[in-house]
Amino acid sequence: MSLSTYPVRVDAHLDPGLNRWLWLVKWVLVLPHYVVLVFLWIAFVACSVAAFFAILFTGRYPRPIFDFNVGVMRWSWRVSYYAYGALGTDRYPPFTLAEVPDYPAHLEVDYPEHLKRGLVLVKWWLLAIPHYLVIAFFAGGGVYLVNEATTSDQSYWNWGSGLIGLLVLFAAVVLLFTGRYPQSIYDLVLGMNRWVLRVAAYAGLMTDQYPPFRLDQGGDDPRGARLAVPPPSQQQ
Questions:
Q1: 193 vs 137, 155, 167, 171, 206, CA distance in Å?
Q2: Which tens digit of pLDDT belongs to each residue from 8-53?
Q3: Is 181 a domain residue?
Q4: What is the total count of domains within the chain?
Q5: Can you tell me the distance from the alpha carbon of 87 to that of 97, in angstroms, rounded to the nearest whole number?
Q6: Is residue 235 part of a domain?
Q7: Using one digit for the tens of pLDDT, what is the confidence trace for 183-226?
Q8: Which residues pair with 107 in a beta bridge?
Q9: Whole domain around residue 48: which residue ranges?
Q10: Is residue 156 situated within a structural domain?
Q11: 131 assigned to some structural domain
């Protein structure tokens, strides 16, 4: 399948002059977003169940539910891009479901006029299994630190992450000592995030088009004409 026709677009621009130290405290700064997103994703799941039955009986994804669910994914992507899914910007994410044209991270999904009613029964679990295996390698369980007490009352820290988290950690260390985010790592991280978000939209029943098994690196999606916002260094 040509990526130029895929209905999910993920774009981003790496901010110049990232703060060397800010990434150390972003986990605190994004806590308000995480609290809101917990409730938004609960609503996302409930709305997706309603959309499942609507598609099964009518072949259509209710537009208000579709717009809300895309908004939740968009909000999540902005927070992830600011925090430890990419560390691509120091600009604090806005609290909105809407597209923000001048924010450096964007997500859009084309609304499907018609969806196959029978396909909704299998695509989100059976057909998506190969992709789930790939994104499990990319994302793992997320980046986390676990403080585990041993029987000798000594404590130690365990680091666990998927490939995205490990690459972002490496980029953060490089940023700390050099003030620069390695472009090659950034491009790879964006490609993996793009893959994850395409699969999320497919599993969320937003499209019948199977996600491509291709790693499109860099901040510009192959179909990025919709989100042609210049990077900050080129804005007047």
A1: 12, 33, 12, 15, 18
A2: 999 999 999 999 999 999 999 999 999 999 999 999 999 999 999 9
A3: yes
A4: 1
A5: 20
A6: no
A7: 999 999 999 999 999 999 999 999 999 999 999 999 888 865 44
A8: 10
A9: 3-228
A10: yes
A11: yes
What pTM did the predictor assign?
0.86
Question: Which residues lie closer than 8 Å to 32 by C-beta, 6 or more apart?
Answer: 95
Three-state secondary structure of the chain: CCHHHCCEEEEECCCCCCCCCHHHCHHHHCHHHHHHHHHHHHHHHHHHHHHHHHHHHHCCCCHHHHHHHHHHHHHHHHHHHHCCCCCCCCCCCCCCCCCCCCCCEEEEECCCCCCCCCHHHCHHHHHCHHHHHHHHHHHCCCCEEEEEECCCCCEEEEEECCHHHHHHHHHHHHHHHHCCCCHHHHHHHHHHHHHHHHHHHHHCCCCCCCCCCCCCCCCCCCCHHHHCCCCHHHCC
Identify residue 155 by its one-letter amino acid code.
Answer: S
Q: CB within 8 A of 207, min separation 6: which ones?
A: 7, 8, 109, 110, 112, 115, 201
Distances (CA, A) of 139 to 5, 22, 134: 25, 23, 9
